[in-house]
Amino acid sequence: MKSPTDPSGAIRRFLTLTSATLLLAAAAGAQQRAEPPATARYSAVVRDALGNPVPRARVRAQGHHIVLTDGRGAVVLDSLPVGTQVIEFLALGFMPERRVVKLRAETSPVDTVVLKALAPGLDTVRVTADEDPTGFNRRRHSVAGQFITAADIEREDPRNVTALLRTRERMRYSLDRAGTPSITMTTGPGSGCRPLVLLDGFPLPPAPRMTGIASLDWIVHPDEIGGVEIYTNPGQVPAQFSLLRIGSCGAILIWTREMMDLPNAPRGPRRP
Length: 272
Fold this sequence. Notes:
By secondary structure, this protein is of the alpha+beta class. Helix content is 18%, strand content 30%. The chain has 5 helices and 15 strands.
């Protein structure tokens, strides 16, 4: 039997306490490392120069998915990293807006963003009061081409416009040297061309140029589209658009629901 003054017992107790302390410290460190990083929320209301709300504007923090404003022009971006972020805004008929904001973990005030209207570069579209103001339905039954209707879009529920177009005949999704995606038309094995894309009869408005995001996906969203016409042969393009520089490639005509006098599409949860 060891005496009470035997130092080996004290050493064992010391080692036991030390091991327990180290285990507790390691567990605390692991718990601290497992805590998710702090995130922030950005809220904004998008308006035009007259103070009217801009619904369905596309809002995006760089590196995150696009979110649409609601009928009041309001939008909320969740789960953003704390710190300086670049927020981009784009809506049909308005100049793109880019804003640098500093986000904190606590709730931040609602930002107000005013978009400037695009100066028209062409004459105003004149539409006759009939049941087919764009001629889409008439051409769909009388000329060659590929046609996508509003019912097709609602059934397919594409994530964005390029996802809608890339599945069509002779259409593909390609990347340029900078990594920016776009829709091209195939003209032969391993070759393609960039088609003319018209929105409501006019060339596309400017859009932010970002790696990994097609500018077409910024400009219009599938639930805003009433119809799409795809002409992979320049000779198929309707005569009223022949004055535009089609070139040796074809053309894609995108018509908004508003232009086709269609009601707004049902708005479900937006895909990332």
